[in-house]
Each structure stands twice: as structure tokens, then as C-alpha cells.
Design brief:
Strand order of the largest sheet: 4-3-5-6-7
Shape: globular
Number of domains: 2
CATH superfamily of the largest domain: SGNH hydrolase
Distance between the termini: 48 Å
Helix content: 40-55%
Number of helices: 16
Mean pLDDT: 87
CATH topology of the largest domain: Rossmann fold
Strand content: 5-15%
Length: 445
């Protein structure tokens, strides 16, 4: 792939989260400070003297940066006011500027610019390098190679804490749900049965298993659908529907009334219709979300995502009243990332959002109650689905790893075909073997 195509892919993917980033900036209350992605023109301008440009190059770069600044000055206020046209124009302006700048530079100058402006993204990494130099410098906290090498799956900390916070997938540092919660999950699974279009039990009805999430989710789930539909173990009544969509972060889909959230949930309805099923037949959800360009230090950004997930769970309960189970997964490894979209440690740390959400339900939070005997039902029963994160090439306890070729070249964040296949196989293994899923997913049960 040429350097132009490679860079453009990184830029476009990095800007997917721009709209939610503007909103997040407002939510943090940082006054007139622009989001880091909109500070790029100034950062590039500051780097110009260090790039060894000739006069023609310098003039062209300064012109491109100046035009981008004018666009930002003219449109940023409107973008903050949630003017979607203004946001699209800003995105286009930033893509155009960065495309133009990279076309002007020679390869060694491009590399120097990435070093001077780290939020542009570096080169893909592996398990870490020598010393304590920054392994990734996104538009927020950095992580050193030593810190990156110290990350390990949530279930493999053996009682140790991460930044003072309990690890393990479930409360008490455990990797299995409490017995009562596990039993409730099996009881919920036994309630799942073929339903007709109106949600009434029918021998010829359907059980819809649907994904909810962002770009990585749909890329992985589309492969899962293909291999699951071909697997003889799958219950023929189960219809696998991919509701996940590119660019649709947790911040976007936490509401369904306007903007990108409305687009997301309307599209979900369209995909159900295309599959010949209805909302009333959706009974289980695989939920895998993330936020674009997280900035806050841990645990802040994970707490934000936890609250977003609560809203999403409430939406699922309201829109799909027959959903009995939600299985959650967090991000895959982000240590190869070359953009600020969702690198480490954010990819690892977002797993805590899932952990805390599930723990709140286990601990009896009435806002997440699934048991009618304990009051108003406000959520389906929830538990971990397959845990997807692994520390790159370092083997998990089950031998699972991610290789550099498991992510695409454009941003080293989204899964390649091999990466999608790996996650799809984990999903199939989960739904055919987990006691709370195989009850309805497989023909044997």
C-alpha cells in the first residue's frame, strides 16, 4: 500500500470520532480549548522549521495549514452547537489539509513530522521496546513501552490491582460470576424460545441474536455470522443479525432520538427487517463498544463509558422488550495502533467499564434490575461474553494472542481478516459452550 493511501486511511479513521469528541470536550467544560485533533494545524506549523523543507515545500505547507485554520475559525462555533453540516465540513477540511501536507513531504520528512506531532500516529509496535520511551502518544496520556509490556488480561492479575483498582472479570477479583448470578443467567436462557413477529411463542418462530457496537464489532460479527450459520451445532431457529455499525461509538448510541444515535437505531431496525425478523424476536445481544479518542486518565474515561453503557442497556430493554440476556465484550489489543482512535492503555482499560457495569447489576443496582421479584425490570440479565483482549504476542493463559498482521495497515486498530476470524472463533466457541448461551444457541439443547 502506498504511503498516501496508508496515511489517508489513518486520517479518515481517526476523524470518525470527531463529532463525539466535540461533545465530550463540552462535557468536560474546558472552555474555549479546541479538541486536540483541531490543534493539528498549529502543531504542524510549529514543526515546519524542523522538517528540512525547501522554500516551495514550506510555502505549500503553510498555505494548506492556513486554509485549515480559516475553516476551523469559521466553523468551530457551529460545530460546538451540534451543527452536523459544520462538523462534516470540518472533517473534510482536516482530511484535505493532512492529505495535502503528506503529499508535499518526502518519506523522511513524513516520519519526522510524525515524531514532532505524535497525535498523527507512529509506526506499528509489538510487545514494547527498550527503555521507557513512549510506545504510543495519542491525544492524551501516553503509555511507555514498560507500561505496555506490563498490561495483561483482566482475568490474569491474580489478585493484584491495576492503578489501585480491583481486577478480575467479576466481583472480588474472580473470573466467574457468583453462583446466584450464574443460575439466574441459565434461568434467563431457558426463557428464550422461538417467537413469532409479535413476540408470541411459536414452533416456527425465531430467536434473534444481535450485535450492538461500532466498526470493530461489525467487522468481527459479520465473520461470526458466516461461520455460525454454517455450523451444524447452531439451532436453526436462531437468526444472527449484525446491528453494529462503523463509527458508532458508545457516546453516539446512548440515545436514539437525534443525530448519530437515531441513525444507528434506525439502521438496526432496517437490518432486522431485511433479515425477516422484528424487534419482538430479539432475545439476546452481544454488546461490544468503545469510545473514539478517549482523553481522560484512568479511571475517568472508563467511568464515562460505563455510564454510556448503562444508557445503551436501558435503550435495548426499551426497544427490544423480549431481550433476556446481554453478553459484553471489551476491545481487542490496541498496542499496535498508529492513530489516537483507541490505542493502549485505553483499549485495555475500557474493559473495566464492562466489569463495573456487570458488577452493578450483581450488587443489586435497581437501575439495572433484571429480576421482577425485586422490583421494576430495567435491564436484561448481563454477563461477560468472550473476553477479547490479549497483550499482543504475549500468550494468554489459553494461548490466545494478537499478531501485527491481525490489524489493518491503515490504522493498526481495526481488525484485518485474520483478526476478525480470531474474534469470530472466540464468539462461536462461547455461544456453543457457555452454560447461559448454549441452552438456546445449540440444537443439542
Amino acid at each position: 500500500m502506498g504511503r498516501r493511501a496508508l496515511y489517508l486511511g489513518c486520517v479518515v479513521v481517526a476523524l470518525i470520532g470527531f463529532s463525539s469528541l466535540v461533545v465530550a470536550q463540552e462535557r468536560r467544560g474546558k472552555g474555549g480549548d479546541r479538541p486536540p485533533i483541531l490543534q493539528l494545524p498549529q502543531r504542524i506549523r510549529e514543526a515546519i522549521p524542523k522538517l528540512g523543507l525547501d522554500e516551495a515545500q514550506k510555502s505549500k505547507v503553510e498555505s494548506l495549514v492556513g486554509e485549515a485554520d480559516k475553516k476551523i475559525d469559521a466553523l468551530y462555533g457551529k460545530a460546538q452547537a451540534e451543527d452536523q453540516d459544520a462538523r462534516r465540513e470540518l472533517q473534510q477540511a482536516m482530511v484535505s489539509m493532512q492529505r495535502g501536507v503528506m503529499e508535499v513531504l518526502k518519506p523522511d520528512q513524513q516520519e519526522k513530522l510524525r515524531q514532532e506531532v505524535p497525535m498523527l500516529g507512529g509506526r506499528p509496535g509489538g510487545k514494547g521496546g527498550k527503555g521507557g520511551k513512549s510506545a504510543r502518544t495519542a491525544a492524551g496520556p501516553t503509555i511507555s513501552n514498560e507500561e505496555l509490556a506490563g498490561l495483561k488480561p483482566l482475568g490474569e492479575w491474580n489478585g493484584a490491582k491495576y492503578k489501585g483498582v480491583e481486577t478480575g472479570l467479576y466481583p472480588g477479583g474472580k473470573n466467574e460470576p457468583p453462583a446466584a448470578h450464574a443460575a439466574a443467567g441459565i434461568a434467563a436462557a431457558k426463557q428464550i424460545q422461538p417467537l413469532d413477529a409479535d413476540g408470541k411463542p411459536s414452533q416456527n418462530g425465531k430467536i434473534v441474536l444481535m450485535s450492538v457496537g461500532m466498526s470493530n464489532t461489525t467487522m468481527e460479527y459479520s465473520v461470526f455470522k458466516r461461520i455460525a450459520d454454517a455450523d451444524p451445532r447452531k439451532n436453526p431457529a436462531v437468526v444472527v443479525v449484525d446491528g453494529a455499525q462503523g463509527g458508532q461509538t458508545a457516546a453516539n448510541i446512548r440515545q436514539a432520538d437525534e443525530g448519530r444515535g437515531k441513525v444507528f437505531w434506525d439502521t438496526v431496525d432496517g437490518r432486522l427487517k431485511a433479515a425477516g425478523v422484528t424487534r419482538a424476536q430479539v432475545q439476546a445481544i452481544w454488546l461490544k463498544e468503545a469510545d473514539a479518542m478517549p482523553h481522560d486518565a484512568f479511571p475517568g474515561h472508563a467511568k464515562t463509558m460505563e455510564n454510556e453503557l448503562v444508557d445503551i442497556v436501558h435503550l435495548i430493554h426499551a426497544r427490544f422488550p423480549n431481550v433476556k440476556q446481554i453478553f459484553l465484550s471489551s476491545r481487542t489489543y490496541g498496542g499496535y495502533a498508529t492513530t489516537a482512535l483507541n490505542p493502549e492503555p485505553y483499549a485495555f482499560e475500557e474493559g473495566f467499564a464492562c466489569k463495573w457495569l456487570i458488577e452493578r447489576q450483581i450488587n443489586g443496582d435497581p437501575e439495572l434490575n433484571f429480576d421482577p421479584a425485586k422490583g421494576e425490570v430495567k435491564a436484561p440479565w448481563m454477563a461477560w461474553g468472550p473476553y477479547l483482549w490479549a497483550a499482543g504476542q504475549t500468550k494468554r493463559a489459553d494461548g490466545f494472542t494478537y499478531e501485527p498482521e491481525d490489524v489493518v495497515e491503515t490504522d493498526h486498530t481495526h481488525p484485518s481478516q485474520s483478526g476478525r476470524q480470531k474474534v469470530a472463533k472466540l464468539l462461536l466457541e462461547f455461544f456453543t459452550s457457555n452454560p447461559a448461551a448454549k441452552v438456546w444457541f445449540t440444537t443439542a439443547h
